[in-house]
Amino acid sequence: MYRLARNLLAAFTLAAVITPLALAENLPTSWVDKDTGHRVFRLTNEPGSSGFYFNVNAYTPDGKEMVYNAPDGIHVFDLATRKSKLLVPNPPRSANADGVSAFRSGVHAIVVGKKTPSVFFSKFDAATKTSSVYSANVYTGAITKLVTLPPRANVVTVNADETLAAGTYIEGKGEDYGAHRMNPPGVKPGFLVQPQNKGQMMEERLAAHLPLVLFTINLQTGKMTTLLHSTDWVNHLLFSPSDPTLLMYCHEGPWQKVDRIWMIHTDGTHNTLIHKRTMAMEIAGHEFWGLDGQTIWYDWQYPKGEDFFLAGYNLQTHKRTAFHMQRNEWSIHFNLTKDLDLFTGDGGDPGQVAKAPDGEWIELFHPEMLKVTGINESDFWQPGVFHAEHLVNMSHHNYRLEPNVRFSPDKKMVIFTSNMFGDSYVFGVEVAKAVNPPASEIHSTPQLAKQFNPVDPTPLHTPPTAAK
Q: Using an 8 Å Cβ cutoff, are 452 and 22 in contact?
């Protein structure tokens, strides 16, 4: 009986290991979206794989490789051959570790370098309770340990010449955001999954006013430089892709309660608010750099949930541009090409801030600047509009995982993450419409996904049925 039980346990364990991989092998790898006419590709095979956050560089300087995350570690994807390899494996998972703890104890990609074909990543040492920063060469696989951080410190961005990383740490024993994270029901833990209790945790963290240090660390010498002390919640650090001395960051919290978007130089000077509100309940956020490093772009709502723009501020000319969009075109995140001829967005479900009744699409935006026929001043917003084109029907995607769109380096594809098949994978959709595709390749994306994942997603802020 003991041997039978042991064999059954082994069989169940084996099934738990092979079933996701077997499922991935059976999932479709390409189809043409019936509703849009654009071809969609599933780029990754690892269940739980995920692209980077939308504003973090994922491409090597030559534009040939893309780095992504998966439960087993950090992977590299060849954009030409569409083959991937494991670059930095996660440490072995303990037998009693659940999905969330295993995720937190692994290696964490920070960014792909702008100068060398390196992915920078951190790894937490439970024994010393410190994190260290490493670089891994995408082509050779060589891993180099760079610096070890003080307790509680972490870094989240590396500058354009790869000499500095920037991060924060809380002074004292205050409890940081995420300590009581609750994973949303029906969604597996992952890199882009938002907590079920995100709103509550953000309110609590903002109200705590924990003393915090924003710092840089020299990746060659380990020298740390304090840029500022604050009791504001500082988050979303992002170095300029072109100026190694310029750092963007935000005051985190519910957007209507903070002056969010800031920049500061690495010598601690020119700490500057980028967008100052002029209306109560006006919000700005999800900021990101233009690829040339000259413009900061962000979601601007004037006021919150009512009127929607993608706004840009040029640091050299001080010109402000605002592209207007309709409610159903609003997206959680936006991205763009270097020459600004195309923009993209990842949509949102009815539970998001826009409350869009038909917003669950990967969008392609064709920008148009409006002709100014009246009074115009140098400090006026210059108006434009987006003309939206649907790329992928995302109505079977659970938006508790945010898709985080980006263009491929050649601008031929928009890349995003989706859990439409249950587990998350990295997908791509061609910018150009498919030409005369065979009828057998044309499918409704939601219906196709439902064959493999019969669970209908619930909107972000809608409690599951069992909790009502």
A: no
Pairing of strands 30-33, 442-443: parallel
Beta strand extents in 34-159 (DSSP E only): 38-42, 65-70, 73-78, 84-89, 107-112, 118-125, 130-137, 143-148, 154-158
Q: Determine the Cα–Cα distance for residues 25 and 306; give it in Å rounded to an integer.
A: 43
Cα distance between residue 74 and residue 85, in whole Å: 9
- The CA distance from 60 to 65, in Å, is 6
Q: Which two tokens stand for residue 49?
A: 């794989």
Residue type, 396: H
Q: What is the DSSP string of 422-433?
A: SEEEEEEEEEEE
> Is 108 exposed, middle or buried, given 0-12, 13-18 or 19+ CB atoms closer than 10 A?
buried
The reply to whether omega before 438 is within 30° of 0 (cis) is no
Angle at 102 between CA 99 and CA 106, to 5 degrees: 140
pTM for this one? 0.91
**Quick one: 223 exposed, middle or buried, by C-beta within 10 A (0-12, 13-18, 19+)?**
exposed
Q: Exposed, middle or buried by CB within 10 Å (0-12, 13-18, 19+), for 327?
A: middle
Distance CA 452, CA 237 (A): 38
Spatial separation of the C-alpha atoms in residues 261 and 276, rounded to whole Å:
9
SS3 of 11-49: the string is HHHHHHHHHHHHHHHHCCCEEEECCCCEEEEECCCCCCC
Phi/psi zone of residue 322: left (φ > 0), alpha (ψ -120 to 50 degrees), beta? beta
**H or E segment and range at residue 104:** helix 99-104
The model's confidence at residue 3, banded by pLDDT at 50, 70 and 90, is very low
DSSP class of 441: G
Among the listed residues 327, 315, 402, the one whose alpha carbon sits nearest the alpha carbon of residue 358 = 327
pLDDT of residue 180: 85
Residue 274 has pLDDT above 70, yes or no: yes
Mean pLDDT of 343-365: 97
Q: Which residue has the tokens 């380096």?
A: 409
CA gap 113, 296 in Å, rounded: 20
The two tokens of residue 257 are 């309660």
Distances (CA, A) of 291 to 178, 362, 450: 30, 21, 36
